[in-house]
Amino acid sequence: MKIIGRKREIDALTMCVDSQKPEFVVIYGRRRVGKTYLVKEYFNNQFSFYATGLSEEKTNGQLKAFNKSLIEYGCKEKKQPADWFEAFSRLKEILISPNVYHEPVNNKIVVFLDELPWMDTARSDFKSALDYFWNSFGSSMEDLLLIVCGSATSWIVDNLLKNRKGFHNRLTKQIHLMPFFLNECEALLINNGMVMTRGQVIECYMTFGGIPYYLNLMDRRLSLAQNIDEICFKEYGSLTSEYDNLFYSLFKKPEKHLAIIESLSENKEGMTRQELLKALKIESGSLMTKNLVELEQCGFIRKYMNFSKSKYEAYYQLTDPFVLFSLRFLKEKEHGSWMSYINTPSYNAWRGNAFEIVCLNHIPQIKRALGIFGVDTFEYAWISNNSGHGAQIDLLIDRKDGVINLCEMKFSNEPYEITLNEFKKLQNRLAVFQQETKTGKAVHITLISANGIRKNKYSDIAQSIINGDDLFT
Questions:
Q1: Are residues 154 and 25 in the same domain?
Q2: For residue 78, is it within any domain?
Q3: 462: which of 101, 323, 347, 447 fits an S-S bond (Cβ 3.0–4.6 Å)?
Q4: Domain range for 370
């Protein structure tokens, strides 16, 4: 079993294998994050039954594929099932057969249904049949471990996790598979023979995010810049069309989702729901709310609160590195190669934004570096009420021990040096924040720099400094 990271998920699967009761496990997460790989590697690709849904196939095509799996695992009936009730009835016969495969450690019968949302086609009886299969048979079979997964996170959430009827309280374990952190990215790259500095690993994350599939595309003989060219900019590149494929594989009608994403990409500090409605010229907000929830569930955006605003004035912010990279450089290609972008104004602006996203996705590591991992905190952003002040803070860590960390995030190739101008900006942000919020807590300036800080007479303005290595802990 060669699985990088995923200790929490492996522990959860092991608990289910060791269990003395039937288990119904759902694994979900965005496309390419490694759901199928995790399950297949953990069980060494040995299952009592395995089937996968097919993209863009109607009910007949789904049943045809499922029937092939039934035959492969021992079903004697060759004729295609008429509906999903008949399909699951045949699955039941396989699972009660004396010849069914049992997992060797705990003798579990392991059923893996991959890309489950694709099986649920329009006007099919799939959900009812799955519900009946589990309630009438699976839930009383003590040695059964049923694992389902899918990339269409909103379908999983709406139909399994939040379903108040058939599947309510039926699931015994849910695993939300998240993108890799930097330390896991580094381990995967090392495993693949890639040689990079940690600064380059950070820039790799800024481009591809922590998506294992994307990282596995890299050629160890090439530099990071060369790999980005080959994968994203060449006509035959594996990710040349990934941006559109990503959304069209997750949502049946992704046009509104794409419009939201593109609006947020132009406003790096984020936008409120009302601002999005206005920007997209939409009058009704119900569909907007649904789309925002779905994008958040899939991990493309985050919802956060402005420190000094009402809880009803939430902001939405793009936090997926690959999506930001695609919108900046791939959607409308100004240059035909990544090399042509390097050191241009658009490249430098992207690096600043992308590194902030890296930090927002590594708050646990930032807290550990600050020595407050065990302290209860809330994370906010803050935008001054007075636009003339120009004061904005992308990350505030509000601690229960009476301190607020005001985080300033900088990406540069060399150790970052605070100039007199930057020193004055930090002083201004601190003063405006304290004046407008009237906080009674101590406010500590925290500088986060990919390559550390060069000490000078201005650097003492920061109570704490976090460098790139700290983000790998």
A1: yes
A2: yes
A3: 447
A4: 362-472
Q: What are phi and psi of 165, to 5 degrees?
A: -115, -105
What are the tokens at 20? 């003395």
- What's residue 80's pLDDT? 97
β-pair partners for 403: 442
Closest CA to 467 of 394, 410, 398, 399: 410
Q: What is the pLDDT of residues 193-209, one digit of tens each?
A: 999 999 999 999 999 99
Residue with tokens 């994307």: 214
Q: Give the tens place of pLDDT for each residue, 354-377.
A: 999 999 999 999 999 999 999 999
Number of domains the chain is built from: 3
Q: Are 38 and 3 in contact (CB under 8 A)?
A: yes
Q: Residues with Cβ < 8 Å from 258, sequence gap 6 or more?
A: 247
Question: Do 167 and 24 belong together in one domain?
Answer: yes
pTM confidence score: 0.92
Tell me which DSSP letter residue 112 carries: E
Same domain, 25 and 130: yes
Contact 131, 160 (CB under 8 A): no
Query: How, if at all, do strands 271-272 and 315-318 pair?
Result: antiparallel
Radius of gyration of the chain (CA): 25
Are 213 and 34 contacting, i.e. CB atoms less than 8 angstroms apart? yes
